[in-house]
Design goal:
By secondary structure, the chain is of the alpha+beta class. The protein contains six helices and eleven strands. Strands 6-5-4-3-2-1-11-10-9-8-7 form an eleven-stranded antiparallel β-sheet.
Length: about 280
Amino acid sequence: MTGRQRHGRRGRTGAALAVAGLVAGAGLGTGGCAGGDAVAGDSGGGDAVVALRRAADRLVEAGSSKARTSMVMAAGGTRVTIRGAGVYDYRKRMGRLKVLLPQDPAGVAERRPITELLAPGALFMKNRGAGVPSDKWVRVDTRTLSDGNLVTGGATDPFTASEVLLGTRTATYVGRTEVAGTGVRHYRGTADLGDAARRASQGNAGPLKAAAKGFATAEVPFDAYLDDEGRIRKVRHRFSFLNGQQKSPVAVASTTLLYDFGASARVRLPRTDDIYAGEIAED
């Protein structure tokens, strides 16, 4: 096995530890995803399933937006939250986020934000730690990840989050509410990752298919908030994540907030020379 091959395997492992290691370190245990019985359609919200399956296309029409993300893992009274913020270009399927990991268990060490670049089939991380020089990027092939990069990076790719809704099987219109001052329609339902993969864009089909097989269950309960143009303003997925260091699944709630549509979202991927080719320590 070559050094680059070792890096590829270790790189995927090291990236996954950005989240999975936190789960184990925080002592999080069981927690599955509860499914929901929902009825499609409502007189106030139109055909809920159709509206949700069209949400990804509405984002492409919008072009770009700013995004905030939150990933929460909680069990046994312990709560771990990972937050991110950045921009996303829905036409190019590319984004940039700064992801802030929580402090270490002792609450002493400051963790530098991880810069993440999201692209079709790839995740790039800078300030990853684990022996990686601060000026180098780690590249992860998201098609090889058992969670389809819905959890690994500590933030769900905003466009992938929208395409999960392509797998909506049942949904109900809850009612009108507001998200960050914008009037929205609140929908609640369940999506199937296998169905989503079959309907997804080329860049997301592979990762979503991997997630359908890799998660504890392919069913994903969600709450989605669409504005009057059908664009996602907020979506919250509840995944059942299989962590190799735990015998039981860990419940993961991933929330994506989208705003300021049309914002500049220029993303420049790293040059080959800027990508770390060495071995990554397992934190």
